[in-house]
Amino acid sequence: GGRDGSHTHYDHTRYYALNLHAVFSKGTLEWRCFESTLHAGKVRANITLALAISAQAINQRSTQMKKTLISENPAFTFRTFLLRLGLIGDEYKNVRKHLLANLDGDLAWRYDKSTYECLKKNQRTEGVR
User: Fold this and answer.
1) Where are the domains of the chain?
2) I need a surface site. Which of 2, 26, 43, 52 has the fewest CB within 10 A?
3) Beta partners for residue 19, in sequence order
4) pTM of this prediction?
């Protein structure tokens, strides 16, 4: 950037995960939080996630600014978030697969399975048979 002001051409607030500058000029949003890829499934998953978040923002009556605590099981936490967004059923199975692929943890259980009393009872009764 030189002394001609070219370094100030773009406002610094454009460089966040969600760029809202185009809302005022073009009526669009720019998501800047996805890694580049040519994999069609990953591209579809990213677009679907952005659309689901946008739809929730449009349709939600109210909101609270509250940080979600990431548990020791990030895969379960993110999976439940996707389900709250409405990404449920076979239609979104591949989307969930791509979005959850790199997260650690058990998708079905929030805590270690051995901590659930109901599972302990089932294991005891199965051992008796």
Assistant:
1) 34-128
2) 2
3) 30
4) 0.71
